[in-house]
Design brief:
Layout lengths: L4 E3 L5 H7 L9 H17 L1 H12 L10 H10 L2 H19 L6 E6 L2 E9 L2 E5 L8 H14 L3 E6 L9 H9 L4 E4 L2 H10 L9 E3 L4 H11 L6 E2 L7 E6 L5 H12 L6 E6 L2 H15 L5 H8 L3 E4 L3 H11 L3 E5 L15 E4 L5 H6 L25 E9 L1 H17 L3 H20 L1
Parallel strand pairs: 1-11, 4-5, 4-7, 5-6, 7-8, 9-10, 9-12, 10-11, 12-13
Antiparallel strand pairs: 2-3, 3-14
Length: 440
């Protein structure tokens, strides 16, 4: 069922490249074309299009999309006290970690009469998409709503697909309310992205859209992001990923559980084990088979595990080099003295250090954000944080003395670029200053 245990040293360059290759992102021409049609329809017909599309794709007839106060109350009443406590722990821990992320502002005297600043400004309006496909994801609501609140975005709306009884997932609604989001719309798929990007009679237009989704949602996000009149997006998303590095001290029970916890996300999830110990690799394969039988989503996990890679490497340095090359969304270090290895990790979305740090805690309530770069984007992108809901504005203020001190440099640089107007903007001020001093 699973990939054979491979030995890295025995593989050719081409075989190594193939082993670390990711499947092509879903970019079906039909999906792209259909999504473009959905976007056009929502732009043209607004709520009327949203009603038709919701009936078509979700098999639900909705007159109003906005979640009512009664629906929020019913959602809270539906949840058990244990569920509310667990959500409270997640909100508390994620809030604490993200509050510490607010970037410092800069106010610097560059030289006499030259003052430069950088100030934070929250993005005015943001749209948060919380999927509910094969399973509801209230944890995604936590990860999106909290940094948006901490950043101070004045307009925060959420879209999430309708579920049972023409209602949205109660846990997602409870999270939204606990995080101060009252504008929640029962909309899913590409039509939800289009509604937030362009607005409708019911849904406000936003400046930036956040959140994961299926191939239709991803295609919609990519398309609206290329339209200057629409909204920007957080990041494109691929299948979920986990890479585990394990040495002879690792517990195969834990390693197998970590691989399976990621595999159950979806049949296209990517999981890799790099081990310096062949016995650990082989025992992990046995543990995977044993644990898989007890999972509720075992069929999904089984499909993902058919393209699991289990590789034996000569040493930890080789494993680290491979991990940096692959740049996984999640990297788990099941090795002796794992913190010592952190300095060698360059490319990873989020790192889980030691045997008692399962990837699950990052998904829910350790405090870090679980919206992370996939498909190798960890080489150049960071996971979601408060800074993604902010922009920075620079300010400069010069006195006459300050302008005089750098005037010659500005004029010379402008001349090098052939921009006489730039140079003139400085010269006229110098000339006017001389004239003023003469008159005095």
């Amino acid at each position: 069922m699973y990939s054979n245990v491979e030995t890295w040293a025995n593989l050719s360059v081409d075989q190594r490249e193939k082993l670390l290759s990711r499947p092509a992102l879903a970019n079906d021409k039909e999906i792209t074309k259909s999504v473009a049609g959905i976007i056009r329809s929502v732009r043209r017909d607004g709520d009327a299009a949203l009603r038709k599309l919701t009936a078509k794709f979700d098999k639900v007839d909705l007159e109003d999309f906005k979640v009512t106060a009664a629906e929020f109350r019913d959602a809270a009443d539906t949840l058990s006290d244990n569920s509310k406590r667990a959500i409270g722990v997640a909100i508390r821990n994620v809030s604490r970690f993200h509050e510490a992320q607010l970037p410092a502002e800069i106010d610097l005297q560059i030289d006499e009469g030259i003052r430069c600043e950088r100030r934070n400004r929250a993005i005015d309006s943001v749209g948060l998409y919380v999927p509910a496909g094969s399973a509801p994801l209230p944890s995604a609501a936590v990860m999106l709503a909290i940094p948006a609140r901490i950043a101070g975005c004045s307009t925060r709306i959420m879209c999430t697909p309708v579920s049972q009884g023409n209602r949205a997932d109660p846990a997602t609604l409870y999270v939204a309310q606990e995080c101060g989001i009252s504008n929640v719309f029962k909309l899913g798929g590409a039509q939800a992205i289009a509604a937030m990007a362009y607005g409708s009679q019911s849904v406000p237009r936003v400046n930036k859209i956040f959140g994961p989704g299926n191939s239709w949602v991803t295609a919609a996000k990519r398309q609206v992001a290329t339209d200057p009149s629409a909204a920007s997006i957080d990041m494109p998303a691929g299948p979920s990923e986990a890479l585990v590095i394990a040495d002879s001290t690792a517990n195969p029970l834990f390693v197998a559980a970590d691989l399976l916890s990621q595999a159950e996300h979806g049949a296209d999830s990517q999981v890799i084990l790099l081990s310096t110990c062949v016995q650990i690799a082989e025992k992990t394969v046995q543990e995977i088979d044993r644990q898989l039988k007890g999972l509720t989503r075992k069929e999904i996990a089984r499909k993902a595990m058919t393209h699991c890679r289990i590789v034996v490497v000569n040493d930890l340095q080789t494993a680290m080099t491979i991990a940096n090359q692959y740049a996984p969304e999640h990297l788990l270090l099941q090795i002796d003295d794992p913190r010592r290895a952190l300095d060698g990790i360059q490319n990873a979305g989020s790192v889980f250090v030691g045997p008692w740090s399962p990837e699950s805690v990052g998904d829910y309530c350790s405090g870090t954000n679980h919206v992370l770069p996939t498909f190798g984007m960890a080489r150049s992108c960071s996971g979601l944080g408060v800074e993604h809901f902010l922009r920075q504005m620079t300010i400069q203020e010069l006195s006459k003395t300050g302008l005089r001190s750098i005037a010659d440099s500005v004029i010379e640089l402008a001349t090098l670029e052939g921009l006489d107007g730039h140079a003139n903007a400085v010269r006229v001020r110098l000339d006017e200053n001389i004239a003023m001093e003469t008159r005095e």
